Amino acid sequence: MTSTHIPPSERRDIDFIVDLVEPGTRVLDLGCGDGLLLKALQDRKRIFPQGIEINEEAIHTCVSKGLPVYQGDLDEGLADYNDQSMDYVILTNVIQVLQRPDLLIRDAARVGKRVILSFPNFAHWRSRLQLAFLGQMPRTPKLPYEWYDSPNIHLTTIRDFRRMCANERYNVLNEIYLRATDDGGTERVAAIPNLLAEQAVYMICRQSPNQSSEG
């Protein structure tokens, strides 16, 4: 798995994710990078943090912050973790760089009572315009790479993710849609998120056997 390290200025989803997590819970952050989110959760929610990251330099940064982070390849799954052993498993801007994101999400829902994910929305209007009128792979603040050097191999849209949740029978507990503002901030998108949102944040969980697919 290719590690994604997003500059702090681009981690506009952090405050929204921190708000979703209950204080004093066990949190596993997959592809945690330099530990920016884990440290925020530790400081503000007093969680019991744990992270998995593949990049050695990022791991050293996490350890210097006092975070227990271990080296691992997320494409190999979470076989070392017991069912429901974590209160939250978090994947921020990770699923698009995985070989089989569906398998890791399934494993995360096994290990975590709740799973929080964020990802860039490939159906944002800027991406659509570049494809439609320029005939080239989009480059946006959330997708800044050229097609040949991008770590992203499974780009998705909000509509696609919703369909996957229905097919895999996940309960969607919360959904937050975000876009950048002209002053460098972030605001929630209230309508037509598949067109207007640059970033999506979801909290999901595995359905119990007696639940219908409607949840």
Could you give the count of β-strands? 8
User: What is the CA-CA span between the terminal residues?
Assistant: 32 Å
- The DSSP helix count reads 7
In CATH, the homologous superfamily goes by the name Vaccinia Virus protein VP39
Poorly predicted runs of 5 or more residues: 2-10
Major sheet characteristics: 8 strands, mixed
What CATH calls the topology is Rossmann fold
Rough outline: globular
The ordered string of helix (H) and strand (E) elements is: HEHEHEEHEHHEEHE
Strand content: 15-25%
Across the major sheet, the strand order is 3-2-1-4-5-8-6-7
Average pLDDT taken over every residue: 87
> Helix coverage percent of residues?
25-40%
**CATH architectural category:** 3-Layer(aba) Sandwich
In total, the number of domains comes to: 1
Evaluate the radius of gyration. Answer: 17 Å
Tell me the structural class. alpha/beta
The CATH class turns out to be Alpha Beta
What does this protein structure show overall?
This protein is α/β, with parallel strands linked by helices and 215 residues long. The protein has a single domain, classed as Vaccinia Virus protein VP39 (Rossmann fold, 3-Layer(aba) Sandwich), CATH 3.40.50.150. 29% of the residues lie in helices and 24% in strands. It contains seven helices and eight strands, in the order αβαβαββαβααββαβ. It has an eight-stranded mixed β-sheet, with helices on both faces.
